Amino acid sequence: MIHARGLVQTFQSREGKKKTVVRAVDGVDLDVAEGEVVGFLGPNGAGKTTTLRMLTTLLRPTEGTATVAGFDVVRESEQVRRSIGYVSQAGGAFSAARAGDEVVDHGMLYGMRGADAKKRGQELFEQLDLDGLWTRMPKNMSGGQRRRLDIVMGLIHDPTLVFLDEPTTGLDPQARANLWEHIADLRRKRGATVFLTTHYLDEADHLSDRIVIIDHGRIVASDTSENLKANVSGDLVDLQLADSADVQSAATRLGSIAEAGRSGSEAVEIDGNHVRARVARAGRAVPGLLADLGSAGITLESIEVHRPTLDDVFLTLTGRSLRDAQETTKDENQTAPDAELVAAGQEK
Amino acid sequence: MTFPRECFIVFRRQLRMNLRNPAWVIIGMLQPIMYLFLFGPLLKPIIQELGVDNEYTFFVPGMLVQLGIFGAFFAGFSLIGEWREGVIEAERVTPASRTALLVGRLIRDLVQLFVQALILVGLGYALGMTGSVKGIVFGVLLTMLVGGACAAASNALALTTKSEDVMAPVINMVMMPVLLLSGILLPMTMGPKWLQSVSDWMPFRWITDGVRTSFSGDFARDPMVYGTAWAAVLFVLALWWGTSTFRKENA
After folding, report:
1. What CATH number is associated with residue A335?
2. Is A332 in the same domain as A289?
3. What is the CATH number of the domain that holds A285?
4. Which of A53, A202, B6, B177 could form a disulfide with A59 if both were Cys (CB 3.0 to 4.6 A apart)?
């Protein structure tokens, strides 16, 4: 459904008199198969939305090529637009217009007949639990209802590929869980391919078959959530020793089963009478470790095994936790509006 | 017939939203009426200097141009609100022509201007304005050409600045010299030579003169030619600018 090679988007950014070229997206390769649900994960400012805007024909790539739904995003942009649904962060229905009118007009801009668009829109309202809100103005809807209305607009022309940009940002937990159900239905009930961006780890984890992680405009990983966690991080084994004199001895033994490539004492972290290390498939390795420690006469106060989270994956891949990454990109974001203005000149 | 259809969908959506807002309808209608009743009488004592038999014969064409220019200048403000809510982005991701997204909005502005023009001309007649019917029809058309140009420019400016706070001072800065140098309220010929020479550089002065001449039914005179030419040039330039911002607008 999506094949992108070497996508690059550069913006000119200005800080005082100094002009710099920012490579917001810096050589992205991406393949999404039909029927797949892919989570595009990264901190704010990593290049998620910019990539999405290139794939949805809203922004012409500075370099590289992409075909979406079988059409080239530059040369066949109109066919791409016909085949995809795009739900942007900002939404798409005007707050002071009637919801149903916005949906029908949107469908008609896709070439649908008014009556068909209305029929289809009302079906979608029912499916997305918006019954009875056809004549309501979006400004009088809840955050969750508005997001679902945005999704209705993105689905009005029955696209086979749906792009969702940060679909649950700003929603309360219940509305979020409810929206997740509807997003999962996109494939379950409609067979659609879904490409969604998010900076929430749990969201990517919960919804997607595969997670693509982007940082500083580059793809740093692409795999299932399970594999990312298993291959990259291993499980965290945390031993609490009864006697702190045993710390070194325990660290050596834990180190011997710690992740390949990070063997030796470096992989083992000592913190008071705690000894921690990442161990691949800890469930299998721990019984042997316990026997080893027991035969050496080391007594444990407790043992804990933590399955890795996507945050651990991100930390291993980039050297920063996702939360830290959000903090450091804040400053970069402040110059972003300027950068976008200049970039406008590069579009078609 | 896709393009006209897309323009119509965009136009109908805009008109529907405007008509649902009573303030928009009432202010739009009251504007020409207030100008006629509250400013027109001030011209009565200087009828002879204006070279007309009735103050409204001078004032109505000028008022028409003013509504065309200034009403349209503000058209872009509503676009910023739409842009902020993602409407423009959502429209741009449909296969609809980018030009249609702009033109549909321009038609809304022109319909508003046309209704205002009807009120203005009707009231003008009632108040004793004289003019040729053919000339008035042409004058209104010329005004709509200028109004379309200003509305397109305003939309382009809106999508470029994306901020009411930036756009408002820019429009004020443009409006002041246009209002003062176009001879809309008083003819430039009343002023000193240097002021007239300055106003020669103001395209909208030629257009105002053109509409005024047209109302008199005298099509053969210079101001008609210059006025029409300027209106056409401005319209083409503004439409090109507006369309290109809709194409590359980075929402």
Report:
1. 3.40.50.300
2. no
3. 3.30.70
4. A53
Residue B173, classified by CB atoms within 10 Å of its CB into exposed (0-12), middle (13-18) or buried (19+), is exposed
**Overall domain count for chain B:** 1
Residues A106 and A164 in one domain: yes
The verdict on A156 touching B (C-beta cutoff 8 Å) is no
Is the confidence at residue A84, as pLDDT, over 90? yes
* Percentage, residues of chain A above pLDDT 90: 32
Predicted structure pTM score: 0.80
pLDDT interval class at A346 (50, 70, 90): very low
Q: How many domains does chain A have?
A: 2
pLDDT tens per residue across span A207-243: 999 999 988 889 988 888 888 877 666 788 888 988 8
- Residues A270, A150 share a domain: no
- On whether any CB of chain A is under 8 Å from the CB of B93, the answer is yes
Q: What pLDDT band is residue A318 in, cutting at 50, 70 and 90?
A: confident
> Are residue A110 and residue A15 in the same domain, yes or no?
yes
Q: Please enumerate in sequence order all residues whose Cβ is within 8 A of that of A202, keeping only pairs 6 or more positions apart, or say none.
A: none
A146 & A287 share domain? no
Asked if residue A208 and residue A96 are part of one domain, the reply reads yes
Q: Do B90 and A153 touch (CB under 8 A)?
A: yes
Q: Do A97 and B17 touch (CB under 8 A)?
A: yes
Which residue segment(s) compose the domain that A302 sits in?
Answer: 235-307
* Tokens 């420019």 sit on residue: B153
Task: Tell me, yes or no, whether A283 and A340 share the same domain.
Answer: no
Measured in degrees and rounded to the nearest 5, phi and psi for residue B183 equal: 70, 30
| Shortest distance, CA A9 to any CA of chain B (angstroms) | 13
Q: How far is B4 from chain A (nearest CA, A)?
A: 12
**Chosen from B94, B102, B165, B241 to mutate, greatest number of chain A CBs within 10 A:** B94
pLDDT digits (tens, 9 = 90+) for A97-144: 999 999 999 999 999 999 999 999 999 999 888 999 999 999 999 988
Distance CA B11, CA B18 (A): 11
Paired strand residues for B105: none
Residue B4, pLDDT > 80, answer: yes
A193/A258 same-domain check: no
List the domain range (segments joined by +) for residue B203: 2-248
Short-list B128, B134, B161, CA closest to B56: B128
For residue A219, the Cα-to-chain-centroid distance in whole angstroms is 12
Question: Could you read off the pLDDT of B44-99 as tens digits, one per residue?
Answer: 888 877 777 888 888 888 888 988 888 888 888 889 999 999 899 899 999 998 88
